Amino acid sequence: MQSTINDVVHEVHARYLAAGPTTPPPAPAAGGGLNLPPIIPDMKNTPGIGGMQQAANSLAAYVIVGGIIAILLGALMVVLAPRLGFSQAKALGMGGIIGGFAVGGIVALSTTGVDTIYGWFQKSA
User: What span, in angstroms and rounded, lies between the C-alpha atoms of 29 and 49?
Assistant: First the structure.
């Protein structure tokens, strides 16, 4: 097997040497630089954009539901934990309430940010 690979490598190398030098690529135009067309993304016709939007919306909905659950469980802990004899659980419940509101605020801000950035790439009519 090894001799076969070596034979192929030597034959390719010999053909490369026999081909001779290649011509260099042409020089750029006299204005300097490349003439590239403008890049204008069109987010309306992008394949899969609907699925990405649906996935992002579903994720945001699950995060909001988790935040609401954290607020409700935190409030329940603040009210019931001291009565059941758990002295430090009240602080944990307050953390749940604050965390739930923080999660809601983060989702709201990220939704606004994503919508803003998405609007940058929309074609202006």
Answer: 38
Cα(88)–Cα(45) distance, rounded to whole angstroms?
55
d(CA 97, CA 68): 9
> Residue ranges per domain, the chain?
48-125
CA distance 110 to 104: 10
- Token readout for 6 is 């070596």
Vertex 73 angle, CA 72 and 79, to 5° = 90
DSSP state letter for 25: P
Residue 15 to residue 31: CA distance in whole angstroms:
39
| 87-124 per-position pLDDT tens digit | 888 888 899 999 999 998 888 888 788 778 777 776 55
The answer, as to whether pTM is greater than 0.70, is: no
Rounded to whole angstroms, the Cα distance separating 34 from 27 reads: 10
Separation of alpha carbons 17 and 25, rounded Å: 20
